Amino acid sequence: MKERSAIVIGAGIVGLATARALAARGFKVTVFERNEYAMGASVRNFGMVWPIGQPTGHMYERAMLSRKIWKEVCTEADIWHDEVGSLHLAYHDDEAQVMKEYVDANENSRDCALLSASEALKRSGAINPENLKAALWSAEEMIIESRVAVGQVAKYLREKYDVRFHFNTAISVVDGGSVYSGKRKWSADEVFVCSGADFETLYPELFAETSITKCKLQMLRIVGQPEQWRIGPSLCGGLSLIHYPGFKSAATLPALKERYEREYAEELKWGIHVMVSQNGAGELTIGDSHEYGLTHDPFDKAFINDMILSYLKTFTQFRDNRIIQTWQGIYPKMTNGASSFLAAPEEQVTIINGLGGNGMTLSFGFCEQFIAGKFD
After folding, report:
1. What is the pTM of this model?
2. Number of neighbouring beta carbons within 10 Å of residue 255
3. Which residues are paired to 193 by β-bridges?
4. Which of 184, 224, 277, 288 is an S-S bond match for 217, by CB 3.0 to 4.6 Å?
5. What per-residue confidence (pLDDT) applies to 95?
6. Cβ pair 51, 60 in contact under 8 A
């Protein structure tokens, strides 16, 4: 029986997840990446595998499948990961009420609980205790260091499945099962276009017709904490409750959103909600904001970072607050409410795109489910 072959364009998390799902099914996989290494949205994020943000049902199940695959890959490849869980912190009664309703709706399907203020403070010394009323605990969230882990996953795929990588190789033309970089040509049974930049340049007409935009985010990193101090779970402020669709099960969420729209109008104008995760070196990753449009200026806005840091102080306290990095990321986002984009623009070619800001959380699960449905 002839060995099946596949070409994957893009070595970010979607491309790697696609390559893994194919290679695990016996495909001979070749990955092309236009840069020396993945340098887009896949390495410019919190490193959060974040099931709590997904609504109960198939999206939550997809997130948990992703988590399972991440855990397997990290364990096999000795990639740093930390199953710390998460705490959403409530400083007002309406925030605590939303959290209670979330737990009531999900306690039989998720590992979550509503904690008292004292219980929450026992979980993390990084919580601002002033006026703390309650906290939503979830055990399912996991942290990786994405800017390192993405390259380590590529190495793992090369070593375990003999996946071949061509870095610094921009694909300029796709013609059915053949791809070209200038005059060089490679062919395979299937081609998967898995990076936003390549979708836009290889199929510009389809991109223009698609209900898709781009989101620019701003993030910061705080120095590694002294004496190897750990914050414990990833921490979130109340604004995250209205950002993630997972909380829509709470009946009083619309009323909370109305209050936020009055009191945090400027933050919401720039799509700000604030979270913090900690990497293996003790550094703290902080963010983020959300600006939407097909073209974004390359400049960070200092007032956005100031608003992020100001809100951060309402629910955290760290031992060292020095900022060592700021950056921006840009990822594709569907405008029609869809959680992803799949298209077959020509025979033997599939485009996988549009996972929004959920690449770390959903890519492994989504690509596993899609490739299984297509080939198993």
Report:
1. 0.96
2. 13
3. 9, 351
4. 288
5. 98
6. yes
What is the rounded CA–CA span in Å between residue 359 and residue 292?
Answer: 17
Q: Do domains 5-44+147-210+338-375 and 86-139+212-334 have the same CATH topology?
A: no
Q: Which residues fall within 8 angstroms of residue 304, CB to CB, at 6 or more apart?
A: 218, 270, 272, 289
Distances (CA, A) of 166 to 31, 68, 171: 6, 28, 10
| The CATH homologous superfamily of the domain defined by 5-44+147-210+338-375 | FAD/NAD(P)-binding domain (3.50.50.60)
Q: How does pLDDT run across 136-166, given as a tens digit for each residue?
A: 999 999 999 999 999 999 999 999 999 999 9
Q: Which of 331, 235, 336, 225 is nearest to 281 (CA)?
A: 225
Angle at CA 111, nearest 5°, toward 109 and 116? 125
Match 């402020």 to its residue by tokens.
Answer: 237
pLDDT in tens, 170-210: 999 999 999 999 999 999 999 999 998 899 999 999 999 99
CB 102 within 8 A of CB 250: yes
155 is written with which tokens? 């190495």
- Please name the residues in contact with 269: beta carbons below 8 A apart, sequence gap of 6 or more: none
Tokens at residue 147, please? 């800017």
Largest distance between two CA atoms of the chain: 67
363 close to 261: Cβ distance less than 8 angstroms: no
What's the fold here for domain 86-139+212-334? D-Amino Acid Oxidase; Chain A, domain 2 (3.30.9)
- Neighbour count for residue 374 (Cβ, 10 Å): 13
Question: Mind giving me the DSSP string for 112-134?
Answer: EEEEEHHHHHHH-TTB--TT--E
Please provide residue 339's backbone torsions phi and psi, each rounded to the nearest 5 degrees: -95, -5
